[in-house]
Amino acid sequence: MQIKVAPAIMDADLGHLADAIKLVEEAGADLLHIDIMDGHFVPSFVGCRRVAKAVKRYASIPVDVHLMVSNPEEAVPWFLDAGVDIVLFHAEAARDAASLVERIHKAGARAGIALKPREDVERIREAAPDLDCVMAMTVNPGFSGQKFMEEGCQKIPALRRMCRKDVDVYVDGGIDHHTAQVAVSYGANVLAAASAIFASDIAPAAAMKRLRAAAQEAARRAESAPN
Fold this sequence. Notes:
The protein has 227 residues and is α/β, with parallel strands linked by helices. The chain has a single domain (4-224), classed as TIM Barrel (Alpha-Beta Barrel), CATH 3.20.20.70. 35% of the residues lie in helices and 19% in strands. It is built from 8 helices and 9 strands. The protein has a 9-stranded mixed beta sheet with strand order 1-9-8-7-6-5-4-2-3. Helix 6 (179-186) packs parallel to helix 8 (204-224). It is globular. The protein starts with a strand and ends with a helix. The mean pLDDT is 94.
């Protein structure tokens, strides 16, 4: 299983966005993760299309957006126009998740659905065969720096059975070099991390490498474990 690290760029110093992007890219980031919060679906207000355009301007690796918004049907085209590579939205906010996935694909981007820690996996069943990625949230969305909720990982095996074999399974929320091992043991392979990279006890590049090493070790243990 290929482990991917997706630094959540909104926790970087946005006054030096290009430098932050260069730093994590040189340290081996696989993706750049942008959180978008509308102050309605979640209590915080974070990010916009202009931020996504700025990140795309400086990035040389794929950029994803995690839309924590009440109106994904309206918001998705804004971020497709910004040129992002992957769009994740919340199933419980979408009127027709399968149709929205189709719209994202027609625009040439990859599509994913995010689920809150206690959200039922059945919400994605209709869209599941067409998803490129799925996100099992490990905090309730809205704020960075929350405590990791292992129960959010418990749906990952069911998500893997429901989706294509090559689906990327994200975890997002409270991910650090300790909790990443837990998430990977359940089957996650994409780690969206914010404060663990940009507000760590060590430099961001070193923090990202530490996170990846811990996750890869967990993946090796999972693959060698008896079935």
